[in-house]
């Protein structure tokens, strides 16, 4: 089902963003807008600038030129304020091994000022697919997938206007991926702007309202789902391949 | 609950869930308890022993029979330095210098010129005192509990997780400081309770006690800041641990060990034998009060005869032998004082050098502060020696005056059968001699002596805080 975002304000606003490390230009005039209540997937190969884009939105790196706004706040100027409006799910989830799944969620939510009751947290953990017997276990013995589910629960519980996802399905099996995509759609439907960075074209095609192909530090192709039709993965792949060759030429 | 408190609470929760940390903390508390009890027992035993010996010595002096005053000069008198209440917390150089002196005429039988005085600021690893626990062991425990405070978060990536929840770098660092500060407080608390219990006896002075409490609090706070600073500056916990253990080794063990050796090499101090030989040589050139033909004393004799307008010592209204004793004692004491002053000066320069090295090691600075405030440092020992010498000189000269005024020259030089009895002075004279009473320094004097050490520790704390503020800016930064 498609989601109408034509009149929604942009929760993420990136305009002509340029960023270089030493002599290497990582972002080269990147322009990207993610309206509230929408899901944008950013695809691209290694070194295309996907992670740097997220780091810029999170205020960990500052661009040399261009405009970045997260819910109206420039993360380069006020990183702490911007982060309070972002829920972020990193590719390599870093959580506290001396805490249980519930304690991790409680601690991180308390830090963000979004403290929830135990029942709300367990509902989110269940929704994220974490089995009940793992809720009160310390994370020391958790697999990567289990940790990711805890982090997903925390990200979903954050009541913020922006959700950033970095390769969110990389540790999940197909069933869990489908469940996760359903969760992301639910978050979108409550008005959150979702930006998902991924290699996974299938997952992006399944969940995103719009897909951007990032290469050489800028969007070289952007496709939006229209009407009730979802993306044609084969066609997408072909378009991105053409765009990539065009850029290389 | 504020973000800072939340972070602090989680850090403490991690420590509590780490059994090694809990065991280490329990061991430190136990060690502190043992140190407090053993110090209390040792100090109490020492104080009682010294008081008993002092009483016995005074009794023995007073119990002398009728006798010639010069025999009393050579009979001598033992005195003991009473320990202040704070000595139980930090005995300082007391164990090295000793605290008893034998006073007699013509000599300064003290540790004034002894080798042991060169050890006035040596590390005292052999003594388990609350001061030792706080100076040496507590920082090590804090290192093992806190080295990973920030490095662990950086290494595992959780530092970003904290910041992504909206926690600022400053809140993260303050949270870690608060947690480790709470541990430092708990670490120092048993020793401080022991300190108050040990030192809070009659005669304890508030100002030096407050100085010691502030000094140790600043020292532990310094270690807390240093630990968090190193943990913030490196990216791996292992590196933080290595760096901090190296820092502890240099600042707490190495420099306090090396500093006195450097001072001894830079400012050599004569040993007892060298000093005794030098004094004997000078005495020969000065003259001998027991030798009436000595040139100096021949001149002295002429001046006395001229002053009284007589031509023979037999015609003097006072006993010339007593006057000889007074003059001889004045001369030898001047000589001894000259050597003592030179020795004090050398030791003062040694200690100044060690305290200079204290700029590099806050442990040396704290040790100086602690001993100075407790009155157990070199200055405290010198204070006792100077008071003892003043008492000895007054006592001997009083006996010499007694010989001059209460024993006639004729009797003093007579050799007939009854002469010995006629030379004697009544035993009541010895009982009327004033006892030695050590005048303890005022609280302000002790606190003033501790001020340089306190300034260095606080200076270190301020520097570490500035460096931590700079390191905080780069926390979590990554390309």
Automatic annotation (TrEMBL), chain A:
Keyword terms of this UniProt record: ATP-binding, Hydrolase, Nucleotide-binding, Transport
InterPro entries in the cross-refs: AAA+_ATPase, ABC_transporter-like_ATP-bd, ABC_transporter-like_CS, ABC_Transporter_VariousFunc, P-loop_NTPase
Keyword check for rRNA-binding: no
Domain annotation ABC transporter: ranges: 12-241
GO molecular function: ATP binding; ATP hydrolysis activity
Name of a matching Pfam family: ABC_tran
Key word Nucleotide-binding present: yes
E.C. number: 3.6.3.-
Protein name as annotated: Putative ABC transporter ATP-binding protein YxlF
Originating organism: Sphingomonas dokdonensis
UniProtKB/TrEMBL annotation, chain B:
Pfam families: ABC2_membrane_2, DUF3526
Keyword Transmembrane helix part of the UniProt annotation: yes
InterPro entries in the cross-refs: DUF3526 (IPR021913)
Aminoacyl-tRNA synthetase listed as a keyword: no
Source domain of life: Bacteria
Annotated TM spans: 20-40, 132-151, 177-199, 205-229, 241-259, 446-471
GO molecular function terms attached to this record: ABC-type transporter activity
A single GO cellular-component term on record: plasma membrane
Keywords, alphabetical: Membrane, Transmembrane, Transmembrane helix
Signal sequence region: none
PANTHER family: ABC TRANSPORTER PERMEASE (PTHR43471), ABC TRANSPORTER PERMEASE PROTEIN NOSY-RELATED (PTHR43471:SF1)
UniProt-recorded name of the protein: ABC-2 family transporter protein
Source species of the chain: Sphingomonas dokdonensis
């Amino acid at each position: 089902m498609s989601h109408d975002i034509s009149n929604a304000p942009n929760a993420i606003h990136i305009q002509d963003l340029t960023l270089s490390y030493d002599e290497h230009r990582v972002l080269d005039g990147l322009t990207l807008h993610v309206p509230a209540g929408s899901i944008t997937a950013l695809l691209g190969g290694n070194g295309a600038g996907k992670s740097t884009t997220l780091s810029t939105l999170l205020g960990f790196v500052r661009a040399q030129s261009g405009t970045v706004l997260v819910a109206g706040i420039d993360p380069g100027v006020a990183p702490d304020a911007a982060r309070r409006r972002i829920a972020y799910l990193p590719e390599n989830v870093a959580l506290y091994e001396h805490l249980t799944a519930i304690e991790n969620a409680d601690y991180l939510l308390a830090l963000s000022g979004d403290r929830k009751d135990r029942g709300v947290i367990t509902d989110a953990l269940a929704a994220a697919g974490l089995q009940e017997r793992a809720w009160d276990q310390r994370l020391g013995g958790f697999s990567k997938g289990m940790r990711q589910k805890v982090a997903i629960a925390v990200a979903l519980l954050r009541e913020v206007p922006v959700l950033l996802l970095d390769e969110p399905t990389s540790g999940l099996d197909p069933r869990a991926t489908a469940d996760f995509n359903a969760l992301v759609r639910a978050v979108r439907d409550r008005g959150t702007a979702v930006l998902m960075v991924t290699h996974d074209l299938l997952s992006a095609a399944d969940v995103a309202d719009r897909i951007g192909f990032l290469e050489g530090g800028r969007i070289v192709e952007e496709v939006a789902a229209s009407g009730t039709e979802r993306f044609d993965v084969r066609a997408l792949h072909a378009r991105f391949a053409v765009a990539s060759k065009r850029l290389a030429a | 609950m504020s973000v800072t408190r939340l972070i602090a609470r989680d850090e403490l929760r991690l420590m509590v869930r780490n059994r090694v940390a809990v065991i280490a903390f329990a061991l430190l508390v136990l060690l502190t308890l043992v140190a407090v009890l053993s110090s209390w027992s040792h100090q109490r035993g020492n104080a009682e022993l010294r008081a008993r010996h002092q009483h016995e010595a005074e009794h023995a002096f007073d119990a002398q029979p009728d006798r010639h005053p010069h025999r009393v000069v050579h009979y001598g008198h033992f005195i003991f330095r009473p320990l202040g209440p704070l000595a139980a917390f930090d005995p300082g150089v007391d164990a090295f210098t000793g605290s008893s002196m034998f006073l007699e005429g013509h000599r300064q039988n003290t540790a004034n010129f002894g080798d042991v005085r060169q050890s006035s600021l040596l590390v005292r690893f052999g003594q388990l005192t609350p001061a030792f626990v706080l100076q040496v062991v507590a920082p090590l425990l804090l290192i093992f509990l806190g080295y990973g405070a920030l490095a662990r978060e950086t290494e595992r990536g959780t530092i970003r997780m904290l910041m992504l929840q909206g926690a600022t770098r400053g809140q993260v660092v303050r949270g870690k400081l608060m947690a480790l500060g709470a541990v430092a407080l708990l670490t120092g608390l048993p020793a401080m309770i022991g300190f108050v219990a040990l030192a809070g006896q009659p005669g304890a002075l508030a100002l030096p006690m407050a100085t010691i409490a502030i000094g140790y609090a600043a020292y532990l706070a310094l270690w807390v800041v240093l630990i968090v600073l190193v943990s913030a500056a490196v990216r791996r916990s292992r590196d933080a641990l290595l760096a901090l253990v190296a820092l502890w080794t240099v600042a707490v063990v190495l420099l306090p060990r090396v500093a006195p050796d450097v001072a001894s090499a830079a400012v050599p101090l004569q040993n007892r034998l060298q000093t005794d030989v030098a004094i004997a040589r000078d005495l020969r050139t000065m003259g001998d009060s027991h030798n009436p033909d000595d040139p100096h004393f021949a001149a002295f004799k002429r001046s006395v005869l001229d002053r009284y307008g007589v031509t023979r010592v037999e015609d003097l209204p006072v006993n010339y032998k007593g006057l000889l004793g007074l003059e001889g004692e004045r001369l030898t004491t001047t000589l001894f004082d000259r050597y003592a002053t030179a020795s004090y000066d050398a030791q003062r320069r040694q200690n100044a050098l060690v305290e200079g090295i204290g700029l590099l090691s806050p442990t040396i600075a704290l040790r100086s502060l602690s001993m100075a405030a407790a009155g157990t440092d070199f200055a405290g020992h010198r204070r006792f020696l100077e008071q003892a010498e003043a008492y000895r000189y007054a006592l001997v000269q009083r006996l010499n005056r007694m010989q001059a005024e209460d024993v006639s020259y004729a009797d003093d030089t007579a050799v007939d059968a009854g002469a010995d009895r006629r030379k004697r002075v009544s035993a009541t004279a010895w009982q009327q001699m004033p006892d030695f009473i050590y005048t303890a320094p005022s609280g302000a004097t002790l606190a003033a002596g501790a001020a340089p050490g306190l300034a260095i520790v606080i200076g270190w704390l301020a520097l570490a805080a500035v460096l931590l503020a700079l390191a905080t800016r780069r926390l979590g930064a990554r390309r």
